[in-house]
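Tutorial, part two.
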Amino acid sequence: MGFKQKIKGFFVETQDEQATVVTPTAAPAPETKQEPVKVKKPAPVEAKKSGKPSALSEMFKLGGTISKKHEVIVGIIGAVILMLVWYGVTYTGEIIRPQILPNPVDVLYSYPDLWQNSDLLWNTWYTIKLNLLGYFYALIIAIPVGLVVGLFPVTKALFSKYFDAIRYLPIPAVSGIFIAALGIGFEMKASFLAFGIIIYILPVVVQKIIDLQNPSNSKEYVYLQTIETLGATPWQKFRYVYFPYVMHKISTDIINLTAISYTYIVIAESLNKEGGIGSLISIMSRQSRIDAVYALLFLIIAIGILQDFLLRKLDVAIFPYKYNKPTLWQRIKQAFK
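Running the prediction step on this input gives:
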């Protein structure tokens, strides 16, 4: 008999012996009457409160969030509060004199007079046209020059520091130079405005190229590494990496310059009273019509907000990938599927 069979037989005999062992049984316990158990009714469980905070508490929470709907409602309430405070402090004219801050009702009533007697529509169009032309001149100069300066090391070493220094130039101080060179007509004002935009856009274009070429900026530098790995030519690098990258980056800066551009427009239009909202502001200030001045200032704010809104919509249409949206061609293809 082998070793494995012996072991197997040993375990079988052991199990048989264990099975034949008789265990003593205890005496039967006396029967007892069991009383019926009273089942207690469970206490009502209170509904658990949701862990999500309410919209009101979230609005007053440090670093909280607010929905679009509530943001609009709160914004309207804020405007009403400001108007009521403005009306209250100017109602009697004793707290703040009307020569400093007129009553909002007087400001509102000044619009019909400006429309009838000051040709408000034509002057508004004059200012908008000047703004658009100034932007056009600035972009067709600043973008090409900035690309040339930023793309080549020699031009970058020659001019980039000096273009950065121009940003500290006080723009109103150079208005006399533009008058001496170009006169006091519409073209001078457009050129003056373009210069004010160029000195901000040009260094930004150069800086965006520097950011793209910086190896420590791995998020952006990967584009250059990828196209160099594919063996692209210098023209292909410019077409598919440099130019699209710079354009979609500076578009936000161009939109943000809208507010600054209207500052320069008012300065330029005040030099010669041939037209524009800035010219009207200068005339009304000389006539001590402060209510009309405030009305014109609010008109510039409204135009700036509208222009900002339209430029942002245009930015979404031209650079949809910035906002994780499909391109126009992709949307057309989806529409015809």
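The two ends are 82 Å apart (CA to CA). In part three we will examine how such features are distributed along the chain.
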